[in-house]
Specification:
Blueprint: H1 25-38, H2 57-63, H3 71-95, H4 108-125
Length: about 130
């Protein structure tokens, strides 16, 4: 959340951590929601002037640095991130496969003997 580009600008992010803003699902979700809301809007500019005013949704998006992105870009980025996470999970589970002790089936002689002892205990209980 800190490295999404809104709290700490990408220019001020340390060099070793500059890849983090590109792989944040929260960042891409925010961008997708912003594009979805502002794309195609026109704002009324009547009233008292209060500094620079965006007349269209595209201008508002450009102020946030999202003017060149589309919903397709956002969806593609999120799919790439989720796909990479699934692949890394699969690789981790494959490379560190659990080792379990093999269970041996009971021998047939022991099974018969235990069945006979159970039957005699039932008969004695009656």
């Amino acid at each position: 959340i800190i490295f999404d580009g809104k709290n700490i600008s990408e220019e001020n992010t340390p060099r070793l951590l500059r890849w983090i803003p590109k792989v944040g699902l929260i960042r891409w979700a925010f961008e997708g929601l912003a594009i979805n809301e502002f794309e195609g809007l026109t704002f009324g500019t009547s009233g008292p002037p209060r500094g620079p005013v965006a007349k269209t949704g595209r201008q508002a998006l450009e102020r946030f640095g999202l003017g060149s992105r589309t919903i397709n870009d956002v969806v593609r980025a999120q799919l790439n991130i989720v796909g990479a996470c699934w692949f890394l999970s699969w690789m981790g589970l494959t490379l560190t496969s659990q080792k379990f002790q093999v269970m041996k089936s009971p021998s047939s002689k022991k099974t018969r003997a235990s069945a006979e002892s159970t039957e005699t205990e039932d008969e004695n209980a009656d």
